[in-house]
Amino acid sequence: MSTLDTLLSPGMVRSAVLPVVRQQVSALEPTLARISSYHLGFIDEHGEPSTAANGKLTRASLMMAAAAGVGLRPEDVLSQAAALELLHNSTLIHDDIIDADDLRRGRPAAWKVFGTGLAILAGDALQALSLEMVVDDLGPARAEISSAFAEANRLVLAGQSRELTVRLGPDAGIAEYDRIVEEKTSALLECALVTPALRAGKPERVLAALRGAGRHLGLAFQILNDVEDIWGDPAVTGKPVRGDIGRRNPSFPVLAVFPASERLRGLWQAGDTTAAHLQEMADLVEESGGRRAAEQTSRDHFDSALAHLGRAELSPAASTELTTLFDRIVHRTA
Amino acid sequence: MSTLDTLLSPGMVRSAVLPVVRQQVSALEPTLARISSYHLGFIDEHGEPSTAANGKLTRASLMMAAAAGVGLRPEDVLSQAAALELLHNSTLIHDDIIDADDLRRGRPAAWKVFGTGLAILAGDALQALSLEMVVDDLGPARAEISSAFAEANRLVLAGQSRELTVRLGPDAGIAEYDRIVEEKTSALLECALVTPALRAGKPERVLAALRGAGRHLGLAFQILNDVEDIWGDPAVTGKPVRGDIGRRNPSFPVLAVFPASERLRGLWQAGDTTAAHLQEMADLVEESGGRRAAEQTSRDHFDSALAHLGRAELSPAASTELTTLFDRIVHRTA
To answer: With an 8 Å Cβ cutoff, are B131 and A150 in contact?
Structure first.
């Protein structure tokens, strides 16, 4: 089978990965299975089959495309692709509790439906299941892939904790911002890209290139995501506008101009969360160049991601596929 | 070095395992390190060194004694012993949130000091760290030990979820009770006993004997723990008396007599949690034979645990040591 044949459309990733996710989750203890299946959109809150959104499977798509790029068949990393989606979703279930977010993908968050206690256990269970799947998989480089997942898991949690702490003060600076994004966003993308290369026994220079691609992809995505939070169309982003500045969660455009703007500092420190106040902050950040700086920095990271990808010695077809995927992830093109 | 030389007193286990636990936890992201170190009694809530209780290291002690029994040196499973304590403590941090328990080992629970959000992340981080330690350990049977930890992790979470669900109705029966205890209590004890045997490459009959010992040890412990919750001295147990029947959490003595006692059913269903009401339930359970049945069943499981231990082909000195440990765990003798 040529690598070209193994390239998968988003629909093909979905139809390959979701059955594995569904089967693994349904084998959990019944209550944990029910909560997880609800969160993943397989059932509604009454346990009836549902066709709710279950996410874009970004990480599984990256892993499957990277697998093709290193000459593997999709089934060689299918279990890992499903496991990475489960790990990601474990963090989402806990995130919604931590941030007191009532909605997830347009439906009540798991903790709103099943209570905080059981939702904590369901998140724990998906984290545990994800690691168990990679640990129990008998394919090549089982140990190295398990280590990569365990490290990614640790980094995501470190990033989430660091973000909650930094939220207290916007003087963190871009270096601290980058570190948080590399941990909470890039780590799982790097894991997605590097897992097939580990399985295929690729040398360290390939692994390093793929890690670099994932790191910059996460930064490009998160920074543009921050821009959309302030200036995006809620109908497109699916999130209430200006959530970050409303919560005083320092995002890239704010951090880029904060040190120089005495007036922004005053607005930020005022507890005001009215639309007019948020609009005033948004206008000030834009006038001070925060939006332009963010968009330029996101573009730079996107270019760096592609440059690293180009050094990963992947098949040309897979490189093209991954370039399209990177673009879709950062620019949210359907 | 003879196996006799490697037997460790509780103090020796403590001085071997705690430095590893402390070092691993201190390498976490600073906020997660602080919360975990607080929970583990290394620091107080202001970050100052503390000599607070950090648990009995039951699981680490079992693992170290079992290691001696299969001819290993303590350092051969030191990382696993520390990892198992971290896994256990990850569940304690989340348990306190789920049960809204304000106190842990006589101090404010982690979530009371640092907030629910960060305490959720700290529990997640200890779970992740535990798995990372066993996954990254390069010694023999790394994969099998990782699988054992991942399975134990899944079982504990399943048991906790099942318990929260069963708490809604006391008609569960002893079979359901046993299953919950085997998951939430026995699984980590089995993991403690079986890990050294996996590392030493022991055959399945030895592994099965050790698993059986851990399973019955957990049941013997939990059932007597249930008795102490109702009739024990709070000064000895360190917990408020009759917490289980106050919360209507069906414990073994209650389940043993519930089907036959119409009057207990009536008292149970009344929302009353006054001391007089709980006393009346306790007296009724005792008169109906619930206490006697629980104490006898705990003794039976204890005997079964020792019988399984006797079939595990351990060195005689280690068998003696483990028998003492089992007794200490179940009967809470210092």
So the answer is: yes
